[in-house]
Amino acid sequence: MEKIWIAGAKGHVGSALCDLLDCRHYEILPTDLEEVDITDRESVSNYVRVSRPDVLINCVGFGDIASCEAQPDKAYQVNTVGARNLAVQAQAIGAKLIHLSTDDVFSHHARQPYNEFEIPTPSTIYGKSKLAGERFVQNLCTRHVIVRSSWVYGIGRDFVNTVLEAANNPSVTSMEVAENEFASPTSATELAKVIEQLIDNDCLGIYHAVCGGFCSRFEFAQAILKAIHAKDKLTLKPISDSETINYSVLDNMMLRLENFTQPVSWQQALKDYITTTGGND
Ligand SMILES: NC(=O)c1ccc[n+]([C@@H]2O[C@H](COP(=O)([O-])OP(=O)(O)OC[C@H]3O[C@@H](n4cnc5c(N)ncnc54)[C@H](OP(=O)(O)O)[C@@H]3O)[C@@H](O)[C@H]2O)c1
Question: What residues does the RmlD-like substrate binding domain cover (predicted)?
Fold first, then answer.
């Protein structure tokens, strides 16, 4: 039975993968920070030597944009050095490494979706540290897959849960939401379904994996409230903190070219998520 190490197993994507992957087909080895800190070379090397996974899935990330700007060393430590440590160990045992990355490797200045062949030009520390992590993975591990996504939500702290929490809190009556940011909201469950398709084959390289369609952050918040029938509970105030439009829509070109099953539309994924969780934060 194939062994799959999921690093960052308690996060949005890691927990969705643990829920999705069939333990009749795979032996799942879930770890999080307490078990294996991926920034610690020796811990990673010891874990790999003992458990010998066939596939490593790196769901670890230090992803808060503002925190990355405030703590650049930590951003590079987790997003770059951590990725390198996994890449080196995967290569040492001939394992496949599936590495999660982000739309933030792009500058967000385009006006049409970015495909996998566009040249990344990140402008934030988060984006730069994730791109540097991608480079290590590409250079150090032959059998690698890089999966970039955007606006991922699921179990944990994220935009969907922030809106749900505000809507369920009687003392919060309004919320400011950016109307100049555009991307494709993607549920961790839909992203996990894409990752599952990339486990057992030689389809290596970069894949964009986002739900279909796109929207502004403001439209996304409106859709969340509508899904839980709470439009009257929270007033959304559109704001733009700059003149520029922040556009980070990804095109799943490689999934399309290789005939993989695409994620559902962002509206459908949101509906599924709210139905499954009951709309509780
Ligand atoms: N969320 C998004 O919108 C989004 C969008 C595009 C791409 N991505 C990428 O997708 C991946 C997964 O994102 P996610 O939203 O699932 O992240 P997440 O919910 O923040 O989960 C990350 C998990 O990794 C753990 N972790 C943190 N530092 C670690 C370390 N040094 N060693 C081992 N584990 C550590 C975290 O533990 P603690 O909670 O204890 O820190 C957490 O359980 C990341 O690579 C991220 O960059 C995310």
Answer: 3-276
Is 195 within the bounds of a domain?
yes
Q: Ligand 1, atom 5: nearest CA belongs to which residue?
A: 150
CA-CA distance, 159 to 239, in Å (whole number)? 16
Total domains in the chain come to 1
Whole-angstrom CA distances from 15 to 64, 102, 130 are 19, 18, 21
- Domain residues for the domain of 259 are 2-157+186-212+249-264
Please indicate, yes or no, if residue 237 is contained in any of the structural domains: no
Task: Judge contact between 115 and 253, C-beta under 8 A.
Answer: yes
Q: Are 39 and 51 in contact (CB under 8 A)?
A: no
Determine, yes or no, domain membership for 87: yes
Q: Kindly state whether residue 273 falls inside one of the protein's structural domains.
A: no
CATH number at residue 41: 3.40.50.720
Per-residue tokens: 136: 């290590």
**The overall pTM is greater than 0.90:** yes
Handedness of CA 60, 64, 68, 70 (dihedral sign): negative
> Which residues are near ligand 1 (CB < 6 Å)?
7-8, 10-14, 32-33, 37-39, 59-61, 63, 78, 82, 100, 102, 130, 149-152, 156
pLDDT in tens, 22-44: 989 999 999 999 999 999 999 99
